[in-house]
Amino acid sequence: MSDSTISGADVVRWIQVYASTIAENRDYLTQLDSAIGDGDHGTNMNRGMSAVIEKLDGATGDDVGGLLKTVGMTLVSKVGGAGGPLYGTLFMQMGAATTGKSDLAMGDWAKAVDAGLKGVQARGKAEPGDKTMIDALTPAAEALSKAAAAAASLSDALRSAAQAAEEGMKATIPLVARKGRASYLGERSAGHQDPGATSSFLLMKTAADTFADAGRPRADRKNE
Amino acid sequence: MKKLINNPDDVVREALQGTAAAHPDLKVFFDPHYIVRADAPVQGKVGIVSGGGSGHEPMHGGFVGMGMLDAACPGEVFTSPTPDQMLEATKAVSGGAGVLHIVKNYTGDVMNFEMAADLGKAEGIEVEAVVIDDDVAVQDSLYTAGRRGVGATVLAEKLTGAAAEAKATLAEVAELCKKVNDQSRSMGMALTSCVTPSAGKPTFELGDDEMEIGIGIHGEPGRERKKLAPASGIIEQIAGTIIGDLPFKQGDEVLAFVNGMGGTPLIELYVVYNELTKILDGKGVKITRNLIGSYITSLEMAGCSITLLKLDDELTKLWDAPVKTSGLRWGV
Hints:
Chain A is 64% helix and 2% strand. By secondary structure, chain A is mostly helical.
């Protein structure tokens, strides 16, 4: 698996796929947020990711860290609400963890996701089980570290992270929110899937989808 | 949705353009959005900056001017503004005596202002932030985001603005802001929902014969939904909850703030004020200052909120000090 790495161009493609996935799911995320929040998560994330795409126009991904930091800074200045600082911090910390790298081995990716998660926790002060994006990101980061330690293939590791994020997202449904606007609802927040956990699951899922063929020999890969 | 707008995406920017055209004593910036008083920065004076989602007008932009805010950062409708707006506003009003951020307690607002304070400090500006959380409708506990910032924000902006104008230090102004927050309690109610321009439909459903007691200024749910009742019963419940929370006691002097949510006419707010005076008289609490009108709104929501602030000589004097903004103006 040593030759299966994520290139800077792969990272650019992941961001583009995430942006289009957010656009497709804008109304769904907003609908989830209307049930327990203030109904703007899809709109805000879509505004932010559209700005990111404009900003990345022509980016080559030679410096993965710099690229991810730009994504983070753009989200902080365009999203607002709670999503801006949280997703902005996630990408900025992932960028800090990958500074100067032109491609990422699986261990680098696992460390980047973990650094992003720690940044989100420090900014939002949420714990697992509070019904937030942490509930999707924590199991994903754990699955990646475990896969890295077991020397699993890159595509298997990404798939297991996406699956763990999905399970974490679904597990938010019965939870009572203890952070953010949903916490004002108390017990009434139970029975609804958390919109932040949902957009975080989509982040891990698009990574698995986009980087999947990064695991195959370079000669067989498309789009290069 | 029936609104006097062109395109939902343009509402905030076009309203700011109108603000710029109407008020030459304000400077309005568009990339990013922020409003500052035209004579900023005032040298040697603490700069007072606030901000929050749009849709609560006149708060905060209508409170920029002499004796109140030095700058306001409007976000999208009901969405916190971003750190870059707050940083630009902070730099624009920094006159060498530091800058106070007045932050309403919502998760997004708190996080964005924290990032802005870090950025401001990195540029060498002394920044203090005070979080306002006066809404008694929310049970404050470790398991919620805490009480929301509502009516006390308007009072804190006026009182800290007056203190800053009198050249109080940053530490003094921040301490004053905390005191105003500690001595204020608020609660609101809604007769109808607000409609955000982007959603185009009511934020929550409320029957023709129902009301929501304890509503938030973004249409967040309150304590209970019940059948509409005469104003006397509604105000008795809201005022009773507020009075019992601080608690306000016999002999206290208070500022009573009756606020309209955006869609309620002034005549009804005076009916509310009349009920409030009867209740406070009965408790031996004396209203020595008042504010009645729509100052912290929730778009076109019908309803009201009540804020009580326990006064002393210092706060009374600061309240009476001159203020010259489009939203509040006296003594000038």
